[in-house]
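Structure first, sequence second, as always.
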């Protein structure tokens, strides 16, 4: 078994730097109104570009959430956002919507797309469908037992799965 990736939330530059200082392998954060943790603070575009560059220099990763449940009116802004994320070369985009997945794959080719825990994926058939649609990782539901996770792992070998190891604490 390989060592788990330590992934921490980072809503601002200060929390990003703290996560890096204390050994996180990766962080996730958002910019503007496209992340579900908007109440926790978000990066400006300039801050995010700087943090992505700093993470890469440390051989670490910066994942960006675009895990809102978008309405039709959100897609123009999302298109621009995904273009920006491609330009700054983020490590991955975390989404929670099928339309957003399609748009991210089109507007940010080459950037991996992860399926957010908000999608509540609880079975191997869903994992395999997300894979077919172009996702590179699925973050499994927090409600799964260890045995259920093991069963999904066995049926989806070779595909990246992510699980929360600290309940609903977003760690």
């Amino acid at each position: 078994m390989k060592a788990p990736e330590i992934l921490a939330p980072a809503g601002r530059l200060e929390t990003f730097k703290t996560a890096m200082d204390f050994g996180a392998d990766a962080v996730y954060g958002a910019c503007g109104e496209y992340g579900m943790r908007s109440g926790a603070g978000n990066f400006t575009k300039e801050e995010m570009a700087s943090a992505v560059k700093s993470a890469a220099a440390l051989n670490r990763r910066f994942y960006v959430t675009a895990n809102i449940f978008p309405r039709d009116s959100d897609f123009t802004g999302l298109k621009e956002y995904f273009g920006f994320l491609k330009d700054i070369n983020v490590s991955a985009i975390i989404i929670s919507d099928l339309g957003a997945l399609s748009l991210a794959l089109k507007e940010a080719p080459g950037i991996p797309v992860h399926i957010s825990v908000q999608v509540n994926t609880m079975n191997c058939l869903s994992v395999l469908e997300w894979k077919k649609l172009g996702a590179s990782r699925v973050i499994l539901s927090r409600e799964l037992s260890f045995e259920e996770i093991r069963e999904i792992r066995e049926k989806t070998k070779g595909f990246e799965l992510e699980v929360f190891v600290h309940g609903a604490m977003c760690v």
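Margin note: The first strand starts at residue 7 and ends at 9.
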